[in-house]
Amino acid sequence: MAIEQASLTEISDVFYRDVQSLGMSPLWRSTQPGPRDGVPAAPYQPCHWSWSDIERSLVRAAAIVKPGPEAERRALQLCNPGVAPSPSPTHTLTAAVQMVMPGEIAPSHRHTMAAIRFIIQGDGAITMVNGEPLSMTPGDLILTPGWCWHGHINRTEAPMIWMDGLDVPLVRSLKAGLYEGYPDELHPATKPIDHSVSRYGSGHLRPVWEQTSTKISPMLKFPWAQTEQSLRDLAKVDSSPFDDVAMQYTNPSTGGHVLPTMGCWMQLLRPEAHTRAHRHSTCHVYHVFRGSGSTIVDGVQIDWKQGDFFALPPDCWHEHLNRSSSEPAFLFSTNDLPVFESLGLYREDAYAERDGHQEVVASYAARYGDSRN
Ligand code: GTQ
Ligand code: FE2
């Protein structure tokens, strides 16, 4: 008996060695990564960045580098230690805060990675996207779809600051990243200013001769005034238990997401709103455009105020609170929803216990305050 057992072990050891050398791997020995028993769980931590840290750092960066040959962009990437060494807030999206000072030009280039910009501060600088000059005003969303020439120029008297969101980690993982510098400083304008807004900006009308629908929104700028009005109108009649008054920016040619890889939302949290918790397979990077409040993520309370950023990993329970009794809070966010929807990977669950509200077990500072050191 003992002899038979020993020989069987020997036979299987030889077998495992042989299949490995033949470029094969026995599936029954693979350790399956991921959550057990089909229960999703956040694979990494959420993260929070305060506006005061970002703004102070941008001011210091302005004294150190200029956009141009030495620094293609003066942008500070937001890094979540939970996805290190990727310098990004989530495993699919990068985010940065970029500043262009009066008189400066960030030269044109193009890349297969798509970008969104959400304008934070300043008024009237231009981002040039494939020959269309787009003027920037706080609250505007501007798209830079993949492989479009783009550069930025500030001819105003004040610094221009915005959020960049890109699909860099996703495109890198697909080995589909390509980059090309423009041989001159700025790719020239071939269209009138805000051309695509004149064409599609009404939101509910399109030129009759425009028949095609494309996965990339032909409208490249979504002005704040219309966004705010739409949210205030929706707030009068309806809301989501999980996101309060939340709207997705839409591609006017399809009604779907604005880009194939990135979605964008604006959320109005009404005064004293406290949403119910849920979790989903997508990840989201938030910028607090107006207001102050908290988001509870897997029992950890992130307090946020105007200008702050925070990132939600996949499958974390989360609920939002507006702490003001008089003012709405406006949260901009970008996400990887289009990817999950088109691949059939989107999942969502509601938090069933305690009336949909988590127990707060720690503050963000207490749980993660020193995680960057
Ligand atoms: O402004 O073109 O934050 O290409 C990262 C990569 C901004 C930009 C970023 C970019 C840009
Ligand atoms: Fe770029």
Describe this structure in words.
With 373 residues, the protein is α+β, with helices and mostly antiparallel strands. The protein has a single domain (47-368), classed as Jelly Rolls. It contains seven helices and 23 strands. The chain has helices spanning 2-21, 51-64, 168-173, 195-200, 224-235, 337-343, 364-368; strands spanning 47-49, 75-77, 94-100, 105-111, 115-121, 126-129, 132-135, 141-144, 150-153, 160-166, 179-181, 221-222, 245-248, 263-269, 278-280, 284-290, 293-297, 300-304, 309-312, 318-322, 329-335, 348-350, 362-363. The strands form five sheets. It has a six-stranded antiparallel sheet. A hairpin with a 2-residue loop joins β17 and β18 (300-304). The mean pLDDT is 95. It binds 2,5-dihydroxybenzoic acid and fe (ii) ion. Fe (ii) ion (FE2) binds at residues 109, 111, 115, 150.
Write out the distinct hetero groups bound to the structure. Answer: 2,5-dihydroxybenzoic acid, fe (ii) ion
**What is the molecular shape?**
globular
Q: What is the first-to-last residue Cα distance?
A: 58 Å
Name the poorly predicted regions.
none
CATH architecture tag: Sandwich
Mean pLDDT: 95
Radius of gyration: 24 Å
In the CATH hierarchy, the third-tier topology is known as Jelly Rolls
- Main sheet strand line-up: 1-19-16-21-14-13
If helices are DSSP runs of H or I spanning 4 or more residues, what is the number of helices? 7
Q: CATH-wise, what's the superfamily? A: Jelly Rolls
Q: Helix and strand succession? A: HEHEEEEEEEEEHEHEHEEEEEEEEEHEEH
Number of strands: 23
Helical coverage, percent range: 10-25%
CATH class: Mainly Beta
Domain module count: 1
Question: Sheet bearing the most strands, described?
Answer: 6 strands, antiparallel
Structural class: alpha+beta
Strand content: 25-35%
